Amino acid sequence: MKKSAFLLVIFLVNGLSTYGQENVITEFDLYGCWTFQRSKDGERLEKEVNRSCLKTDETLFRQNSKIRFMAHNKCEFQAVIQDAVCPIIYKTVEGTWTYSDTSGIIEMYYPKNFKAEFWEKVKEDYPELEIPNPRPYMRFEIISLDLKRMEIKKLRTKMAMANRGKSE
Q1: Rounded to an integer, what distance in angstroms lies between the CA atom of residue 13 and that of residue 34?
Q2: Which of 49, 65, 130, 134 is the most exposed place for a label (fewest CB within 10 A)?
Q3: Terminal-to-terminal C-alpha distance of the chain
Q4: Are 34 and 67 in contact (CB under 8 A)?
């Protein structure tokens, strides 16, 4: 009787300790395509909900809302290209990304040579600005994740924080 009670206590303690542990989101959980969705009120959000990309939903791809996380810290996203003929064009670029499983923060970066001439001109006009290369594209924290849905909180990029107040 004492042995069965002792085993029961061990199983209960083990079960409760396992239940209390948080599931850690790994880099491999993020691989694949994700689309951003706006809230019902349509405002820009601190929190956004992503879902796995639907292959047939090409309208979202054109509206700068898809991100594909790949192995070897590569990612694809839509970047806005502006020129005199067409003021706004979305172009798929291959950037890089990092993920910290301790903080849950993802940082995405443009390719190193993306709009290099433009940023050289900005550096000439505003030499006090710190312009990192590669430049940050987006930074966010994962709030929750399941197989088809990721809730995120957008964060300021380090470039924006480093240059706060310098261009005034």
Answers
A1: 38
A2: 130
A3: 78
A4: yes
Residue 90 pLDDT: 75
Q: What is the sign of the dihedral through the CA atoms of 71, 47, 37 and 147?
A: positive
CA 96 to each of CA 58, 86, 106, 119, 154: distance values in angstroms, whole numbers, following the listed order: 23, 27, 11, 19, 18
- pTM here is 0.69
Give the SS3 label for residue 22.
coil
Give the number of other CB atoms < 10 A from CB of residue 57: 12
Q: Which of helix, strand or coil describes residue 151?
A: strand
What's the CA gap between 50 and 152, in Å, rounded? 8
Distance, CA of 118 to CA of 89 (rounded, Å): 16
Instruction: Give tens-digit pLDDT for 57-94.
Output: 554 444 557 888 999 999 998 887 776 666 677 788 89
